[in-house]
Amino acid sequence: MNRLNRIREHVLGIFRIVVGFLFACHGAKTLFGILGAEAPATVGAWPGWWAGLIQFVGGVLLCLGIGTRVVAFISSGSMAFAYFSVHASNGLLPIQNRGELAAMFCWVLFLLACTGGGRFALADLFRSVRASDAELSTADPAAADANRSTSLAR
Q1: What is the pTM for the complete model shown?
Q2: Number of H helices, E strands in the chain
Q3: CB 40 within 8 A of CB 31
Q4: d(Cα 46, Cα 18) in Å, to the nearest integer?
């Protein structure tokens, strides 16, 4: 168990990236009519186009690790809405009403909203740059300016 605990944050980061990629693909299929879709959703059509937009943008943000908890929470809610508005009227269980994907995404995204996204997130990179700037500014204002210039050059 100690070995698994040591890699927990790394696995969670990879999990977030994979889920984000799959969610973005799901949205791309709806928005752009690719990846096996018959046709793209009509721009602005409720709820399909808006769901596709949440899925695509949310998936990309999850892949990148930007705003993970908020994005995952909103995306989870959109999948709950999809399940209850589209699938639930066709049967009680997801296997009966073809809502397995909506239910799975809903709970997986809710898990990410509760746990956070683990490692490999761009938000962590920005956070560490800001933290190092803050540490330097309290110690040496000239060094903080030099570090800020270096950070912006990246």
Answers
A1: 0.80
A2: 8, 0
A3: yes
A4: 27
> What residue has token string 């040591």?
6
Nearest to 26 by CA among 14, 15, 41, 44: 41
Q: Which residues contact 23 (CB under 8 A, 6 or more apart)?
A: 55, 58, 59, 62, 75, 105, 109
DSSP state of 43: T
pLDDT tens track of the chain, all 154 residues? 888 999 999 999 999 999 999 999 999 999 999 998 888 989 999 999 999 999 999 999 999 999 999 999 999 999 999 999 999 999 989 999 999 999 999 999 999 999 999 999 998 887 766 676 666 666 655 554 554 444 443 4
Here the tokens at position 114 are 């509760």
